[in-house]
Design goal:
single chain, 100 residues, alpha+beta, 5-stranded antiparallel β-sheet, 3 helices
Length: 100
């Protein structure tokens, strides 16, 4: 649920595109569809998948792999990274950034 909350809140600030295969994308899908997509990634459901969340204006991407306990944010802008940190902290999660 925490991943869902973070993505939905990020979608309040940024337009997103969502994909399960990295080829077909849906612009700003309904919150229910975002929640279903994330649940399919983190549950032990037989149809596990990966979810890609693209922030096109920021040229950034979040990937939630199947059965993962984390989300990976690629190429974040400073604003997107700071907002993600705040939202993760509000959900009791944290962000980790590898050293440069």
């Amino acid at each position: 649920q925490k991943f869902i909350n973070i993505i939905l809140k990020l979608n309040c600030y940024y337009d997103i595109k969502v994909s399960h295969d990295g080829e077909s994308w849906e612009n700003n899908p309904a919150p229910e569809l975002i929640a279903q997509g994330i649940k399919a990634c983190v549950s032990h459901h037989p149809t596990k998948s990966t979810l890609f969340v693209l922030f096109e204006t920021e040229t950034s991407l979040i990937v939630i792999d199947n059965d993962s306990t984390y989300m990976t944010l690629y190429n974040p802008t400073s604003g997107l990274l700071e907002l993600t940190r705040q939202l993760a902290s509000a959900e009791g999660l944290f962000t980790w950034q590898p050293p440069n």
